[in-house]
Design goal:
The chain is mostly beta strands. It has one domain (2-47). Helices cover 0% and strands 75% of the residues. The protein is built from no helices and four strands. It has strands spanning 2-13, 16-27, 31-36, 42-47. The strands form two sheets. A two-stranded antiparallel sheet has the order 1-2. The protein starts with a strand and ends with a strand.
Length: 48
């Protein structure tokens, strides 16, 4: 069973597209973090 499901996520700031086509499914019992590394990078971690 999915607790969170995202498909085709997009985000722009003015004319700058910063996310394009992000898909994410988080299952029940999973711990997920999205940590910024810098202005242009993120680290994604998932634990079960």
């Amino acid at each position: 069973m999915s607790v969170i499901e995202v498909r085709g996520l997009k985000k722009s700031f003015g004319g700058l597209e910063v996310l394009r086509g992000i898909d994410l499914t988080v299952e029940a019992g999973a711990s997920v973090t999205l940590d910024p590394i810098s202005a242009a990078q993120f680290k994604f971690s998932a634990l079960r």
